[in-house]
Amino acid sequence: MEIKNRSAFHEYFFDNKYVAGVVLTGTEVKSLREGKASFNDSYCIIHKGEMWLKSLHIAEYSHGTTNNHDPIRDRKLLLQKREISKIEGKLKEKGYTLIPLRIFFNEKNLIKVEIGLGKGKKLHDKRETIKKRDVEREMKRFIK
After folding, report:
1. How much is the CA Rg of the chain, to the nearest whole Å?
2. CA pair distance 37, 40, nearest whole angstrom
3. pTM of this prediction?
4. Beta carbons of 6 and 40 less than 8 angstroms apart
5. Strand positions, DSSP E, 39-108
6. How far apart are CA 65 and CA 41, in angstroms?
7. What tens digit of pLDDT does each residue of 75-95 get?
8. Contact at 8 Å (CB) between 27 and 59?
C-alpha cells in the first residue's frame, strides 16, 4: 500500500530523495492502512536537530475511541544525524524545500516516508513537463 503526493512532482524539481521512519500512534497506523492521508500543504522542517513533518493530514480512525489522534499534529521523522545535517546544509541554499513525496510500508511492514529535497518550478517549467508527458503518452500509444 502506498500513498503518493502527485502534486509535488508538478510543483518541484527534486535533487535528492531520502527515506525516513515516522513516529506514529496506533490509530494513525490503522488509518494509514486504510489509505486515509492527505498531503495538502505538508512540508518538513528541521528544529533543534530533529526533523518534523508538518500539516500531513491523517484522518481519524473510524473505529477509534476517545483516544483517537489529532489529524494534523506534527510528526517526528527518524533520520540519522549526519543525514539531517547534510539536508540542513542544502536547505540553507536559496530555494530548497523538503516535501513529503509518498508514504509506504517497507518489507518489515513499517511505515516509511520518502521526502524530497527540491526547488520550486516556474510556470514555463511546468508547461514543459506537461508537454514531455504528452509526447511520451503519444509515443506509447503509437507503439502499441
Report:
1. 17
2. 9
3. 0.77
4. no
5. 43-47, 50-54, 57-58, 75-78, 96-105
6. 28
7. 889 999 999 988 888 888 777
8. no
Cell of 97: 524545500
CA 62 from centre of chain = 24
Task: For residue 117, count CB atoms less than 10 angstroms from its CB and return exposed for 0-12, middle for 13-18, buried for 19 or more.
Answer: buried
**CATH number assigned to the domain covering 2-143:** 2.40.280.10
> In this predicted model, what pLDDT tens digit does every residue of 29-82 receive, in sequence order?
888 888 888 888 888 888 888 899 888 888 887 776 667 776 778 888 999 999
State the Cα angle at 15 between 1 and 13, rounded to 5°: 80
C-alpha cell of residue 68? 483517537
User: For 121, which DSSP code?
Assistant: P
Site of grid cell 509535488: 8
58 is written with which cell numbers? 491523517
Q: Which residues contact 105 (CB under 8 A, 6 or more apart)?
A: 1, 2, 111, 112
CA dist 27 and 85 (Å) reads: 31
